[in-house]
Amino acid sequence: MKGLHIGDLFVKVPVIQGGMGVGISLYGLASAVANQGGVGVISAVGIGMTEPDYLKNLQKANLTALRKQIQKARSLTDGVLGVNIMLAVTDCDELIRVSIEEEIDIIFIGAGLPLKIPAQIGLDKMKTMKTKIVPKLSSGKAVALVARYWDAKYNMVPPAFVIEGPKAGGHLGFSPEDLKAENIQLEDLIEEAVEAVKPYEEKYGIEIPIIAAGGIYDGHDMREIFKSGAKAVKMGTRFVTTYECDADIEFKNSYLACEKDDIEIVVSPVGMPGRVIRNKFVDEIKAGEQKPYKCSWRCIKTCDYKKVQYCIARVLFNAADGKMDQGFSFAGSNAYKADRIQSVKEVFDELKYEFEAKELEAATV
Q1: Which of 28-42, 119-133, 162-176, 277-291 has the highest mean pLDDT?
Q2: Domain assignment of residue 304, yes or no
Q3: Of the residues 29, 82, 97, 336, which has the maximum number of CB atoms within 10 A of its CB?
């Protein structure tokens, strides 16, 4: 495997661990991945729920917890660390500020088009800060739009893009109809994104790597998606069933116990489809059962908390905490392939072996 360059940042192994909230990927998993040469990512989504007094002030708890988690991860690794932040969360700007103050290496920004991020951060700061801003998008068209806007307004472009396809876990940037039809392929999205950045690579004299995400589980998958022009992969599901993953063992067991047919799409209270592992709780919400809750703070901009059936943040945190009867597991389409708990090192060793075996096979044909 070749390393990955994101601006002046070098990643030894082109594997980025997906940021999984609420409470799935924190400092433990992120530091372990970074120590193997990949990019370890802390999810900032609902991170304050890990604080004991978060109900008093969730916004303050989010910022406190994010700072703590970055500092803990940094104390355990000299590797590359990232933070995953959603534009859709109410405190997006504050989470970005804390991440930059803590000199996180990369901010992966998703759940929207980050057109105005450079202006919000400040152009002078954008040009000098250590932190790289990498948009996570769902199409080559969106990549072209962001690159064109940044180029015209700020005379710069993002140093990389993540393209997340329809087989990813969690909230998805596709319509339920497209997901049901299964007519969108990650390979096509990657090729479109690669073409979209070419004019800006030529203009600025830089490489703008495209990072593939969604449905990539092993080294064979990596090798195949690299043929489409991706320079790295972003994997969440594969790292859930590791010792170092920050989720409770019952969350991990839900992956180990699931079959392919157990993985399905639900409609989230925030108005987006999401891929989950079916359980009793999922059956109950699909049957229309109301799950009462008290909204301590409107954490997602698109959530009409007075009308929704359940609180997605609370449900996800319950699952991360092992309370599977009160929540469900977000999971990618290949979660059923997990058959044991491994160390992060073992996952990396397998990925490298599978990738190189595929390369050797291709060379001998």
Answers
A1: 28-42
A2: yes
A3: 82
